[in-house]
Each structure stands twice: as structure tokens, then as C-alpha cells.
Batch of 2 targets.
Target 1
Amino acid sequence: MKNNNKFRMDVWGFITLATIALYLLFMIYPMAYLIKQSVIDSETGAITMANFAKFVSKSYYFDTLSNSFKVSIAATLLSLAIGTPLAYLFSVFKIKGKSLLNILIIVASMSAPFIGAYSWILLLGRSGVVTKFFKGIGIIIPPIYGFTGIVLVMTLQLFPLVFLYAKGALKNIDNSLIEASENLGCSGIRCFFKVVVPLITPTLLAAGLLVFMRSFADFGTPMLIGEGYRTFPVVLYTEFINEVSGNDGFAAAIAVIAIAVTTVVFLAQKYVSNKKSFSLNALHPMEEKKAPKGISWIIHLFSYLIVGIAVLPQCYVIYTSFKKTEGKVFTSGYSLKSYVTAFGKLGKSIQNTIIIPVLALIVIVILAVVIAYLVVRRRNTLTNAVDILSMIPYIVPGTVLGIALLNGFNKKPLLISGTMLIMVIALIIRRLPYTIRSSVAILQQIPMSIEEAAISLGASKMKAFFRITVPMMSAGILSGAILSWVTMISELSTAIILYTGKTKTLTVAVYTEVVRGNYGTAAALSTILTALTVISLLVFNTFNKGKELSL
Amino acid sequence: MSKISIKNAVKKYGDTTVIPQLNAEIKDGELFTLLGPSGCGKTTLLRMIAGFNSIEGGDILFNDTRINDMDPSKRNIGMVFQNYAIFPNLSVRDNVAFGLKNRKVEKDTVKAETDKYLNLMQIMQYANRMPNQLSGGQQQRIALARALVISPDVLLMDEPLSNLDAKLRLEMRSVIRHTQKNVGITTVYVTHDQEEAMAISDTIAVMKDGVIQHIGTPRDIYQRPCNVFVATFIGRTNIIEAKAADGTIAFKDGYQVELPGLKKAENQEVLCSIRPEEFVICKDHEMGIKGTVKEFTYLGLNTHYSIELEDGDTVEIVEESSIKEELQPRQKVMLQVKKEKINVFNKQGDTNLIRSGLYEEQ
């Protein structure tokens, strides 16, 4: 509606201002505080670049930056290399048990990454099951610790993102494009590289960015499996937690550098993908065909192998959770003792894992719908500001946000650190941009004329929105909410900074139990987490009947 | 019921003026069509009347009520959208009843009125279905019922037939025409399809670049178009250069036609608009424009000829097919014109010289 483009102080105007105020208080203020900390000497109060100089000059710190880049780039490329062909095979060929494989891939991607790391240590570590087995027959497996391990875990964790993105994009390729290509003499693998990949490149770029951001910000994996190979989030965390050196300014400086790096990567990706953007719309999507006899077994082997490796750590963790433990070591035989400990000692964390995300989810859904409406239907300078503000969390690593919130809100009158509220706020800020994006996409697909029809029939704008538009959006919002929920219950990097004894969540509990060496309890807890995830995804499937998961 | 007066209406997007100073008077109970090529501002104008576009200058009145700043929900307008805009989350009945419920009409009345229009549009049997189970034509009927059930003062229709296939388009065209006449509601109808406009309208306004070129009955705009744009946009026509002097038109190769309507006009170079059916093809030595048959297309009822004139221009001619053989390519012919039908414009093409004279007096 063109006459909505000017800002007016009506209900929506008020909501716009309130949203901006919330963002200013809970996001901009702590981030600004963080930046201030990084450049101000805590004793003299003078502006100083000493913290940044320290980071750049000492290779002990500076190397972590290049380490992070190395693992993130490697994980991104590998994820693309695995996820894209797999998505293509799933789109064009009939594969036996495909729906099960689909669910397994999603489960693999939804688990907390460090659980994968921990499980690979159990399998391929120094005293891992597989390592021992091969040692027995005289084969030495290369060590899993360090660069290899981090990249392995991250790739297996993140290729499903590429897979899901690519599969969504492939659905938009009209079959006639493929037929045209075949007609012009380009088919099979050549067609995949010459036609299909270029067509989905914009999507692959977006997926690549997401994978890069996640792996760059991932804290749990390198912490557990990295050993000497220290990455950026690890040094950030240890500097922050390290109370002996007690230099808040230095940790803040590292956080600022992290944001700078992710911003540059984000902008670079935007620049490239804007140049390559075009829209696809398939009248007749590609149809699944039976694979030719000769290569059918290769396709099946490839698909099952990849998915098998991806879910292997999950399965092994579930298996060990039922093993008998003697103190901290697994012994032969099976028992439910780990679960008894888990529920007894850490029952509270299971509660927290449900309460905190639920609270966050309610706020997220409401805010996302409202902001999507402002951004799509009420374009003006202020709503544009809301749009831009809501996207900032994309580029802020979770650990950084955690530190910013903790530092910003640990003094009166803004004393909320250590409470459940701050954890809820952190989840809202981190997850909101995704839900907003999907709500915006849904809203953009609903033609304005539907609302106009309601208005011309005498409904007020507010009523038209809530009576007509929101019900039309609800299915999409609900499935988005369930996905948000799944990512929130497995969130670690912010929670690890913000938690206290009372607000410990499952992921934090798993992490601390792993660090303490209580592998049995950790396995039981992560099995509970996996069960929660699977149940949520099943709920998602029933709500989303027929439609496939897309991100 | 009301008439609509548009006085000096202006629409701007930022610094670009889309509609400069537009005037029109839409009579009570008539079906008024805005016709023009895409981007001519017809939908913009419709949405200004509906209240979905702001108005940057001038006034729009329903009877004597100025509605410029009235909220769209208060204007008592029925609107049919190009994509029908049926609420997919409501049943057919709830879609139709939506407007009445917003008006806090009593339950019994809602039911009675809804039934009346469901019956009128012959969709009673689908009343409890969801819209996505219905075809395009049926959805169109819902949209029309939904717009009419609130007894609006004005009905606005934005290319309502463009999403239908050719056969349904014809059927719905007459449904709309009959319903509009039955209900007697002032209707503004937007389309780019001139045949549709001809068939359905009482009055047509031909628009180009935000300016109304010609307002008139379908017969008026076809037979006496105001300018060359209208002549070429409505139907097909051949534009031929000529000279006008003392009430006579002289074509390049000497053929002359006397036109009483031109008597008052000054002597000048002119453009003649001669529609394909306004030529008469003569075979032998008579007066006329000399031409050579290039090709013909036999279409049953009519035969279309493409004839090259001596100066190299090609004209299109339509004749009723005769039982004899058609004219063959390369045959020489003489072309005469039906002088009471042709139109003559000044060199710029913006004034119909015949209109300004004889026609206006009729």
C-alpha cells in the first residue's frame, strides 16, 4: 500500500519504535559496550589500541585466526562437495528408503556439533573403538585430533544444510531446462556441472555462507577435538573465562575482531550473490527417475555411506548411554545407571532445556510476524532500520553475543546476568533473524490484493491482517517455529557463557560432563537431547504433511 | 448507487508523475471501462478510486462526497481483483459473507443476503467448499458475489477476466454484464483487451501515459476516434498520408475523395485512418489508389488481403469472402474508400478533423 510509506504514529508506528527500542537496549547497547571495553584501558580510562596490538603481534593469538579460516573454508568446501551431489541424486533418482535417509540427514544436522566431536573421539580417538580394532590387525589410523578432526566433524554436521538448501533450489529448476540441455547434447554428469550447478549457484552461495558462519563460530568442536589446534572461538572463550589474567578488554578486542571478520565475509558473499542472482520458477519440476541399472548400486552406496557416516556418532552415543559404567569408565554389560544419574543430578537442566526455548519461541514468533508485516507492508525508513537491525545477529558469533550480554548487563540498574531472562533474550536475538526471514518470505507470497479485498469489504487494516493474513501465514510460521525450537535446544556457544548452576541447559550439561570425563552421563544426556530433537521433527512432519523441510 | 466525479486527479510516485490532471465523469449505473496498454495508469487510477493508492492532487467524489482521504474500508466499494483475492482459509460461504459480517449485519440477514448472491452467481452448490477446490471461473463468481453482497455504491473490477481461458472469458463476460445491469451498480472496469471493453461497456475511456485520450461509447471510439493513437489502438487501421484542400482529400497518386465533414478545416497535410473494411477493391480502370496484391489469407467469413501501394507502403484490407476465386498475388487493383466511414487527422495525429466538423453537429 503506497500510502503506508510515510511513518505515522499509529499502532504500527508505535510497534516500530518499540521494536527499535528493544533492539537498541538488548543488542546495540551490549555490543557498543563491548567495543568500548576493547578500546578503553580499564585502569586509566584512556583510549588504547593495546588489546588489538597484542592480538596481532603474538602469533599465539593471531594464528588462531588463520586456523579458524582454514577449518571453516575446508568445512565449507567439503560440505558443498558432499551436499550438492547428494541433493541432486535425491532429486533425480528413485532411491530405496529415501524418506528415512531424509530424516536421518536432518537429525544429523540438528544435533549439537560437539556431541559429534565427542563421539568421534570415542570411535577414532587414541583409545577409540575403531582405532583399537585396526591396531589389533596392524593398521595405524591417522590421529583424529586437530585440523582433520575439526573439519571432519564440522563437515558431517553441516553438509545437511547444503543438502537441504540445494534440494529446495533443485525443486525450482524446470524439467524443460534439463531436457533442453539434453536435447543440445549435454547430459549426465556434464549436465550437472554445466547446467544444474550454475542454476543453483545463488543458493549454494547462501548455503556456503551459512556453513562458513557456523563453522567459524563453532566453539564446542575445536574445544573438544582440536587439542593443540586452537581456533578463534576457543581463544575467545578461554580468554574470557580465564579469571587469572582477568583482562576483559582483551577478550572484548577478540570479540570485536570476530565480528569484523564475519562482517567482511558476509558482505563479500552478498556482493557475489547479488551479481549472480536470478529467479527460477518451475512449472514442471524435475521428476525422480529410476536409476540406470549399471550405476544404481553406486548411487545407493554413495547415499547410504554418507548418511551412515553422518549419523554414526549419534548412534554410537546412544549405544554407549546404555553401557555399564564403573566410576568414569565404561565396563562390559549394559545398564540404565547413566540415565538414573542424568535424571537425578541434572534433571533441572532437562527442565531448563524446555522452558527457556519455549519462552524464547513465543516472543520470537510474535516479533517475527509483526516485524515481517512492518518490513513487507509498511516500507519506510524506520521499518528499514528494523530490517537491518534484525539481520545483525546473522554476523555475530554466539560466543561474542554471550560475552556482550554478560558484560552489558551485570551492573545495576541493568542487572540480569545469571538469570533465566538473559538466556531467553540471547536465544531470541540469535534466532529471530531466521524466523523473520522465513515470515517475510511467506508474507511476500501472499498477494496484497487479499488484504485489500478484506479492507474494501469493510475490515480495518488490523483486522484484515489478523483475520486473513495471519491465518494464511500460520502453517509456514508453525513449521519455522519448530525448526527454531530444534536449533535452540541444541544451542551451546551462547549458553556456555551465560549459564549459571540454576540455568544450565542440556547442551551445557553434556559439555561439562564430557569435560569432567563422565562419559556415561554425557551419553545419556545427549541421547535425551537427540530424542527431543527427533520427536520435534516428527511433530514438524505431521504439521507439515506432504511438504518437505526447507530452510 | 452513485456517480463518480474525478476532478484534476494527480498521482505521483516520488518525483515521477504517473497521472497528470485527470478528469472524468462516471454516470450513475453505467459500466465505465478504463482501456489502455499496460503501464498507461488505468490500474493506478482504479486503485485511487478504491483508496489503495494515495491521491496527490485534485478530488474524487462519489455523488457529492469527497472521498480522497476516506479509509478504503469506509468507502463502501465492491472490488474484484485480477487474481480474485479469494481468502483461501475461508469457505466459499464465509468468503461471500465476510463483508456483511464486518458491517455487523444481523445473522439472519447475513444468511439471506449471502444465499441470494450465491444463487445469483450460481455457486450455491459449492457454498461449503474451500476455494482451492474450485476452478478459475467459479472463483471469479465468488469474487463477484463477495463484492456485490455488501450493496456497494461502486463496483471496481481490475482485469477480472485476464486469468481465465478464452471460452470462460466469453462466458464470464456476459455474466458480469448481466449482473451489472440487473443490480444497476456504477462499475469501473479495467482491461487491456479492447474486444472485451467493446463488448461490456457503456462508456470507454482510452488511456495512454496517464492521460485519457478519448471518452465515448464503444461505437464512438471505434468510428470516430479522437486521435491516431485511439484509431490504431482500437481495432486495426491503415494510416495513409494525404493532403486536404477545400473539403477534398487527395492521396499521393492523385485519387481524390470529397468529404463534407472537412469543409471547415484548413488546407493542410493530413493522416487518413482507413480501417481494413473501409476499403473497396476494384479490379478495372476506375478511380482509386493504385496497388498490387501481395498475399491473401482466406479465413472463411472474410478474406484478408495485403496490398502494396505505389509508394511502397502496404495496407491491410478485409473483404467478405466471395464465392469466386480470390485476387491472386501480383494482380493490379484500384482501392477506393468508404468515405462516410474514414477518419482524417491533422499531421500531428492529435486531432480528428472530421470529428471537429460534421460529427459534433450531429
Note: Residues 166-183 of chain B form the longest helix (18 residues).
Target 2
Amino acid sequence: MSALLQVRNLRKSFERGGGVFGGNGEAERFVAVNDVSFEVAAGETFAVVGESGCGKTTLARMVLRLVEPDHGVLFFAGRDLLKLRGEELRAQRRQMQMIFQDPFASLNPRMRVGEIVAEPLAIHEPQRSAAERAARATDMLRRVGLEEASLKRYPHEFSGGQRQRIGIARALILRPKLVVADEPVSALDVSVGAQVLLLLQELQREFQLTYLFISHSLPVVAQLASHIAVMRAGKLVEQGPASQVLQQPSESYTRDLLAAVPELPTQRGV
Amino acid sequence: MSALLELRSLTVELPTAAGWVKPVNDVSLRIAAGETLGLVGESGSGKTMLSLALMGLLPAGARVTGEARLASQNGSAKSLAALSEEEWRAVRGREIAMIFQEPMTSLNPVMRVGAQIEEAILAHEPKLGREELHRRLLTAMQHAAMPEPETRAQQYPHQLSGGLRQRAMIAMALAPAPKLLIADEPTTALDVTVQKQILDLLDRLRHELQLALLFITHDLAVVANVADRVAVMYAGRIVEEGPVQTVLTAPLHPYTQGLLNASPTLERRELTPILGTVPQLTELPPGCAFATRCSYRRTECEQRVPEFRYADVTHGARCVLV
């Protein structure tokens, strides 16, 4: 099994304070991601779990090169991502897409759903005709469980779960290899969240996707991760196969996290 | 056990462009002192509107029918639906208090935490002297298990962590010694380790202070760990109610079963989502609101709303299967 994504000693620090109230001269920096290394194999779901402020979102953004690391190495499909510039980086980016947490904030309210889903095509494959793009968008929407009529409608006409499906269709229309999903079900109701998790699993099989799955929720991660890395204060404190991390955690922090998860009583069924 | 709060067919109607809707529809519930009732529902189920009705905070134009009775010290009961705004001021905060999901938006960002808690105390006892007020402030903060209360009282909300902010909200809510505490998703915005601390705190407080706790959440696992009894709400109605262990291990209503099957757990299992979506309140069918998503649907389900029937003395559901 070859690694699709290799991350070595990645680090990102931010200036503390700053802004209008900052500027007291302290040069102390806040290290959001500290010396993080991991590998994601093609076709697997690699989950990073951690509590708020642990640096998991900054890590995800660095992988997509939306945030520049201080230093470290980032290889994607054998290419050194941090060396890519301009056109090369753009070409590489279509292989890596993101699904966001908040389905309300991540869709442009003034664009029709058809335009939203087709927009990545317009950027990366401008040679295609509008009709071709619309056809691809329709296909993709159908694939995520939305009707063709959705094309002409605006985001506000959809529920949270449907909007998340629109976000997924937009992320997948370029047929990326890697999808970074940052808390994709956290804002959704339980019944709808389960629909989206199952959809992500189906799409993974169908399109041979590799997921980097960012979440605060161990139960959610337990449903679909093949590997789990536990992040705390910028560092990965433990990583390994999902079953091992969940059932035989080696770090006391992982054990604390697991112990704090409220559990359902065992069901007897209807 | 006598009820501290008793709702009988409580209904809240709101005017919309498409006519009157009932976000709270024929709800009957009781909570005793020292008891936690979990109220479970997804977005749009009406659980928040129900809590606003109990706080006298319904939007203008809302119509309330049915009964909501709160027991008083002298053994009589107060009818909440009949209170004037003047009378609500003596009940809201004083007898029934509420904490919310996001403590940061409920706290005043430019006021020290201690002063905000004092304000909550003074609102109901304006004549307290300075020393007595300070003593009450410290008691409230100790109830909420805030470490270093003297220091914390001098800090502003942004200087506190999410967990401490929620503790400050709890201190503020409990300072006037209410009998009923409504907690609306109080731990949803918190990390799981902090959530556990807050759940443990609320559980200890309701025993120590003999509080009746109405705990509103979408999370069945949280309810399993905090509630004695649970009521499941769907499209404005209570569709199932009973002891928490019974409801979660042997649910009667297909919606409750569906929620359980859709809840991720630490053990990997086949999740089964509930198909379809919650119906709009303006487009409710004449029968059971869950019928279109239900795999046990019968013809009668589509004709009229099923009655609430009991499978045993404490556990019942609004379903033809019971």
C-alpha cells in the first residue's frame, strides 16, 4: 500500500496577540501545529481527532496549502507539495478538495446550486462548454441524492443535510484523490448526520477516495476511520489503526477522551 | 412523588404567513423536585419553543392553550399560562431558570463575571447589603464548582474557558435558588472532557439542591447519562416517554428506534439513517407526522394522529404499535 499523503515534521506557529489590542512587543509565538508526522494510504480514511484548539483544522489547511507551514515536508502522490508554485500548484489542487463543517456558511447564497457545484469545473476545466458542465453537475447532484430540479435553486431553499450534500457534490466534481473533511457532520441532526456518513462511505468506494477526516467526535470517527491520530496542543500524541486506538489506547490522554464519551445503553431491539 | 411542574395538553401556536402552526402540540409532562427529565428532539422538533413557553419568553403573537402548573411552597400551584408580564418577572429566573448552549453569547462581554452573577441575585433581592451579596456570590460560584472564585469573579467572560463560562452561567442561574432549571443543550458546544464535568456538576446539583432539571438535547447518549426519564419530541408532539433505560433499550416508537440506529457509538456498527426529512409545521399530514418516514406505517397512521398509549405504568408512546 503506497502512501498518497506523507506529512513530516510539519509545524505552524502564529504570532500571539496582535490585532488592535496587541502590540505589547512580546515576540512569543503560539505553536498551533508542532512537529506533526503521519502517512495516509490511498483509499483509506485517516482521522485526526482532538478537542477544540488542538490544531486539527490548521493541520488540515496546511495539507491543502491554504496555510503555509513554518517548516516540514508534505508529499502528495510522490510530489513535494511545498515546492509547487503557480500553475503546478493549481493543477495539484484539483486532486485535493475540502468539505466544510458549516453547510450554511460554505455555500454562496447568491449562486444557484448548479453554478456552485459546477464552479470548480469552470476554474479547472474552462475549455468545457456550459452544457457539458451542467451535465456533470446534474450527474454529481444525483449521485449525492439530490434531484435535477435542485440545479436552479438557491442554497437557502435546502435543509442543512441537503446543503452538506451540495458541498460534497462540489468537492467531488473534479474527481479528486484526497478529500479533507473538517467536521462534516457536526452541525447536522443525528438522523441526517448518519445519512451523510453513509453517503461519504459509498462515495469513497465508488470514486476510490482517500479521506483525511477531522473531527472532535470519537463516536463519529469510530464509524469510518481506518487509522486514527489523536491530537493535543498541536501534537499527535497517539496514532495507529482505528481498532487499536479505540480499544487499546496507549496514551492516558486517549483513555481520558474515550472515558468521557457518553455511551448508549445496549439495546434489546423493538 | 408530587410534580413540581406539570404540563397538561400544553399547546403553543404561532402565526406564520402560511397560517397558524403548532411548534408545541398537546404536550403533557411532569417533573418532580430532584428529578431530571431529558427532552430529546432534532432541530425543528419544538423543544426550544417548549422551554421558551416555560420561561414566559414566547415571541409576540404566540397563543398558548392547555395548562402549565408550577407548584408553590404553600402547596398550591401557579398556572404559568395565566401569568401577566409583571407576574412573570417574579417567576422567571427566580423560580424557573435557564442555561443555554453557547455561554459566550449569554454573558455580557464587557462586564466582570462576578458583577453579572451579583446582578442576577439583585434582580430578585434588590435590598441585599454589600457583604451579604458578596457571600451569596461566593456561594453561587462554589455551587458551580468554579475554582478560585475571588479571582474568577474579577475576570471578564473572554478570559474564561468554555467550561468555566458554562459554570458561570450555572452559578448565575442558580444564585436566586430556583426550583426548576431548564438546560438547553448546555454541553453541545463543549469538548467531551468538559462536557462530562458539566454533566456531573448538574447531576450533583439537582440532588443537593433538590432541583427539577429539564435537560434538552439532541444527543441520546448524553440523555442516557444524565436523565431519570426521557421524553422524545417530534414535530411538536411528545411521541414517547418513559424511564431513560427502558426507552433507550426497548423503544416503543419507530422514531426513537430510528434515532438510536442513527447514533454513532464508539463501537463500529452499521448506522441506519432515518430516511427523508422532518416535515414542515405548515405541511403536517392529518395523521402521524412521522408516518412518511416510518417503515411500520399502516393505513390508520395516515388518517389520524395516534393516541398516547402506555405499554406499562411509566412507559408509553404515540404510536399504533403500542
Note: The first helix of chain A runs from residue 56 to 63.
